[in-house]
Every structure is written in structure tokens, then in C-alpha cells.
TrEMBL record:
Gene3D superfamilies: endopeptidase domain like (from Nostoc punctiforme). Coiled coil: none annotated. The lineage of its organism: Bacteria, Bacillati, Actinomycetota, Actinomycetes, Pseudonocardiales. It comes from the Bacteria. Keywords: Signal. Residues 119-208 form the Peptidase C51 domain. InterPro entries: CHAP_dom. Residues 1-35 form the signal peptide. This is Peptidase C51 domain-containing protein. Pfam families: CHAP.
Amino acid sequence: MEKTIPRRLVRGLTVLGVGASLLLASSVVTGPAIAAEDPDTVAPAVLAVEDLDGRPLTGEALREFLAQDAARTAATQPDTVPVAAAPAGTLADRDQIVRFAAAELGNGERPAGSNCTKYSSQCVAWCALFSTWVWRKAGVSIPQYPFTGDVYKWGQRNGKSYSKANLGSAVKGDVLLFGTGPSSPSTSTHIGIIESRSGSTVKMIEGNQQNAVRRVTRTLSGSTFYGGTRP
């Protein structure tokens, strides 16, 4: 029987030995199925990325994305505050959230590298500003938060956040939080809106990905996300 031996490429991106492959030229990662119920399973974090025209990112452009994504979504320290789950609150129109988010694909910074976008008058890191802008446009009563952890804390106060142990409950329209917890920018590093989910795979729309709104397909795993928040 062949043994599967993980080989680490970048944080959260692993090739699973025999019978698995990472094809940078076609943006495809294949390997054993990962159960969504196991939030700590090590799996490829990024399965596919689209360019600003909706085509699969390939070659050097994909390698550059993976390196930047690993650097910007990695928590630099563990969060010492427990990430508590909360009961579900009322549901927003999730289809509308997804439509509004998808309509922004390709939009971003003007000029590139400035952090200045239509989503806020603040020229700061804007992944959370984008996510809350979309939610607000869909009728969700949430402030526009620049810091990702504040979105999770808002959800805790309003009965809408869940920890990585409950990632199996994530559905379209939710946001997922990257890192180890919501305490600070060094523990809560990025955020994205779920466009769709199939088992342990989530297709996400994320702001502030290489200066723009991009679609990224990821593995739903506690090694990447510390939790999620419902609209």
C-alpha cells in the first residue's frame, strides 16, 4: 500500500504525496478528499484563483499570488482569547450578498498599491471594508469595519459568529476569518465572502487580493480559518 507523505510548499499549501498533484500551469490541486467536519486537517489552502478577467491564474502569476497570499493571511502569533461560538441569528438575503459581491470582481485600488477604493474614504487595508460594504448594500445592519477581527466580534455580540470547530455550518453569504483569533491584526489577518460551498471546498470573493476583488477557491479548514460570521 502506497504511503501518503505531506510536503510543505508554503504555509497552508501542501502536496499530498503519491496520487496527488499541484499543477501551477492549470491552477488545479488534486488529492485525497478532506472531510469538512475535521477543521484541523492539513490540506491545500488555495485550490484555484481567477484573474481579473475571470480566467484561471497560471504560471508565474499564480506562484506570485500563492506566495503573497501565504504571507498576508498567516497569523504571526496565536490568539490567547478563546474563539467562542454563538447561536445563529436571523438570516439575510444570501443570494443578494453573493450577487453584489460578484458584481465587484475586478474592481480595486486607484491607483494600484494605494489602498484607496470605492468601498471607503479611508486608504487602508480594505478586505474587511469590502466585505462589510457588500453586507451593508444587501441590508445587513453592520458598521463598516477596517479590521477583520471586529467583524467576528460584531457577530459574537449579535449571535452570528461561529468558531473553527463549527466551520461545517458555513454557507454562502457568510464571511470566513483567516488566522488564529479576532484580537489583533497579527492574529486576524484577512476575510472573504463565501460565494458557494461544496463539501470541504469554498469559492470565495475577497477584497484586497493583489490590489483588487478576486475569486479564490479554498479548502474549508481550521488551519486557515479561525471562524466565520453570518450576515
